Predict the structure.
Amino acid sequence: MKHVFLLTDFSAKARNAAAYAVRLFDCRTVSFTLINAFDIEYCGTPYISQLRNDLANDSVENLNDEREYLLTIAPEARIEVAARFGRLVDVVNAENAECPADFAVAGCEDESVLENFLLGSNTYELIKFADMPIVVVPGKAAYERPTRVTFATDMLTVGNEVQLRRTAELIGSVGSEVMFLNVAEAEPSDNDEAKAQLASAFNASDISFTKIRMGDVRKGILDFMDERKSQMCALIHRDLGLIDRMFRPSITKKMILEPQHPMIIVRS
């Protein structure tokens, strides 16, 4: 790993996520870009250019303050700042095209169904459309080295091998034990191809899985993590069609709306 995006809107949850990241990633080998995306809803004012410039100046000033704070936590960290105009996911993908990142890090906090419906979730939009794996950190999560990572899998192969291998590299760099978990409403099934893919990505000849049959998949994952004292969860996010979304809501979205642990989200 060489480069990580730290995404901030200058909220407490974003600051906590960035602070978590500079502890999680090895600052000796990883550089960071602290990114703030700002936008303006068109309001018909003739002073739109001046307003945009003012927002950009404020963004840079706040980014430098956040950078100084992060350097008190990790003095050796190499942190650049980037104030960019536009929608967050578009800004992230544009920055990634210019200077590729291995991961992006974002904060999240509990959102009601109504809040999510009315305002949407920037973090979930990133998960769906960003071109790299996302590390998602709950607003109140304190850093603890993840000695045990629960990798929740639906036992299907992952189409994005690059994101899977980056995730395996990060987990390996921390020295974490990986516990693969398949929670399903019906009897969980084996998939030798999926097992072989995970074994290859994690450089393990023998991988063990825990299979749990439970109607509430989110609860099954969280109960398993509590029982095994797991500090982090990895999830595979799959893009569902409209009909699937109506009858089978995304487990990733459920985990994001009510976050309990830091997560690594891999987009398949």
Summary: The domain at 148-267 is CATH 3.40.50.620 (Rossmann fold).
